[in-house]
Amino acid sequence: MNPGVRKILSGPFADDPACRVFSPLVATCLAVLLAGCSSGDDSSGEGSGDGTGTSRGDLLQAPTLVRTVTTSNLLENLADPVNLALLTQAGSPLCDIAAYRIQYATIGSLEEPTTATGALLVPAGSEARCTGGRPIVLYAHGTSTEADYDISNLDDERNAEGLLMAAFFASQGFIVVAPNYTGYDTSTLPYHPYLVAEAQSADMIDALAAARSALPVAEAAQTTDGGKLFVTGYSQGGYVAMATQRTLEETGATVTAAAPMSGPYALAAFVDAVFAGRVNGGSTVFGPYLFTAYQRAYGDLYVQPAEMFEAQYAEGIETLLPANVPRSELYAQGKLPRDAFFSLDPPAPEFADVTPPTTPAEFASLWKNGFAATGFLIRNDYRLRYLQDMQAHPDGFWPDTTDAEPADDAAFPLRRALVANDLRNWTPRAPTLLCGGHDDPTVFWLNTQAMESYWATHVPGAPVTVLDVDAAPAAGGDPYADLKQRFDLAKDLVAAQSVAQGASDGGWKAVLDAYHAGLVAPFCLEATQEFFESR
Fold first, then answer.
1. Domain boundary residue among 369, 394, 421?
2. What is the CB-side half-sphere exposure of residue 272 using CA atoms within 13 A?
3. CA-CA distance, 271 to 321, in Å (whole number)?
4. Element (H, E) at 526
5. Could you tell me the residue range of the domain that residue 337 belongs to?
6. Backbone torsions φ then ψ of 433, nearest 5 degrees
7. Which of 41, 60, 509, 531 stands 20 to 30 A from 54 (CA)?
């Protein structure tokens, strides 16, 4: 693997090891999309406003052409066997792509005016599906820890998702709108409202409004908004996509279809599971990001950070993310522990069996990895109060399904904030695909199960399709049978490579390391593309 691809693996999808299998696809995107591309002139300059005197969704400057990519640039690379794998997943490119960067007015979690930037990828060309009225894909990206993240910059080796949006959607005739989110790139907001549902959905909707006002663009003058709107996203973006769909439909906007992928939709149940010892991969980043965002939004999770975080991490943690250095540097500098989320000492005797849990056995080593005798992130007394609130006010889905609803009577402030942002409170009107994998160690499958259970209980017949790419094909005909079989083969390949390198666990750890970003992501993108094309 070349050094450039290694840099991408520290990008927005997940922890560094999680992209090992995804790397061939990412390498393909780099090789295909960057070969022979031409840079555009920036004749508009950079906007410097903070949103004052503007309305939400206003375009603050003329779109900046970042890059043009032609189908001939892409097709020149098809002889490479690695690129043939991309064609299997994304399809042969049909359209040229004009990649623009937009800047627009939006709001933060306290409804304060601010600015944000994002990508507008516009198809062009002679093919019928590359011009005229085209559908829009509104895409929400996964967690990035780097403050300068810009999904419109297809030259940035960290920008796996921007490249994938170009390959899976823009080159297939979809207009792509993908915000960077507030707090990133040149946004004037000094923080990111991580998984604050109202703020993140506002950002998405404002990016969409700005992008629509920018169309048609000079480099694709014949391509216009055709009226169809698709909403999707992966990981953090899966959550943001669902929150956005909810807001759009509640306000009367028409969503043609949506496909949230591997997102933490049932936040309250998910974080309950983590505090009960099932520490997910990446928790030492996701936890501080989430908790400090909710402290800023609600102001009552703690009086001082040292009430929640161990002293060695508390100072500066509220302004740590997004950072100006890669995640690996945060670990190296001692700003965050790599894995240790909780103490190995039970917070009280009755919680010894979840410090750490030993069931299910195949995940015991993963849970154990989140505990340490020293250097852990979350104070034990804070964990104790959280667990006691779980006992007094249990979630309706986890650990035992009752009514599938969040604990609306939760008393502990963090749990109240999680319930306020849990998405088990609405039902989609548009056809919706939920895609993920049931062994995901980063964003647990219980999130998808909880949404499915909630909708089945409260609105039977909701237009929802649930796809577990890691499930066996259903008997009697399964439209996703081929995709599931190929996913199984991809897992086997990862495991076999690990065993060949000396692994004694049959490759299980390697599969878990690759699962969220490396294995599930491209297969869910493939299913999403097909789902949208059928509408």
1. 421
2. 30
3. 19
4. helix 521-533
5. 267-421
6. -105, 125
7. 41
Q: Are 279 and 353 in a shared domain?
A: yes
**Sign, Cα dihedral of 56, 62, 67, 70:** positive
Q: Are 106 and 202 in contact (CB under 8 A)?
A: yes
What confidence category does residue 450 fall into, taking pLDDT thresholds of 50, 70 and 90? very high
Enumerate the β-bridge partners of residue 432: 258, 464
C-beta separation of 23 from 31 below 8 A = no
Q: Can you tell me the distance from the alpha carbon of 455 to that of 509, in angstroms, rounded to the nearest whole number?
A: 33
Pairing between β-strand 223-234 and β-strand 38-39 as defined by DSSP bridges: unpaired
Rounded Cα–Cα distance for residues 514 and 15 (Å):
9
In the chain, how many domains are there? 2
User: Helix or strand or coil: residue 98?
Assistant: strand
Token look-up 């989609």 returns: 428
Q: Burial letters for 453-473: b for 16+ Cβ neighbours within 10 Å, e otherwise? A: bbbebeeeebebbbbbbbeee
Question: Domain end: 405, 421, 437, which one?
Answer: 421
Half-sphere exposure of 144 (CA within 13 A, CB side): 27
Classify residue 161: in a domain, yes or no.
yes
Give the DSSP H/E element, type plus range, for residue 17.
Answer: none
Model pLDDT for residues 304-329, shown as the tens digit of each residue: 999 999 999 999 999 999 999 999 99
Q: Tell me: the pLDDT tens digits for 80-116?
A: 555 566 667 888 889 999 999 999 999 999 999 999 9
pTM of the model: 0.92
How far apart CA 50 and CA 330 sit, in angstroms, is 29
Give the Cα separation of 452 and 448 in Å (integer).
6
CATH number, residue 159: 3.40.50.1820
Helix (H/G/I), strand (E/B), else coil: 104: strand
Same domain, 134 and 260: yes
Task: Tell me the CA end-to-end span of the chain in Å, nearest whole number.
Answer: 38
Inter-CA distances, 13 with 170, 219, 340, 389, 514, Å: 20, 30, 21, 32, 11
Task: Note whether residue 305 is domain-resident.
Answer: yes
Q: How far apart are CA 102 and CA 218, in angstroms?
A: 14
471: CB partners within 8 A, 6+ apart: 438, 484
What is the identity of the amino acid at 467?
A: L
Residue 515: closest CA among 376, 399, 366: 366
152, 100 contact by CB (below 8 A): yes
> In sequence order, which ranges of 215-235 are alpha helices (DSSP H)?
none
Higher pLDDT: 129 or 79? It is 129
CA distance 286 to 274: 11
CA distance readout (Å), 466 to 127, 177, 305, 448: 33, 25, 39, 8
- What DSSP string describes 475-495? TT--TTHHHHHHHHHHHHHHH
Give the pairing of strands 432-436 and 342-343: unpaired
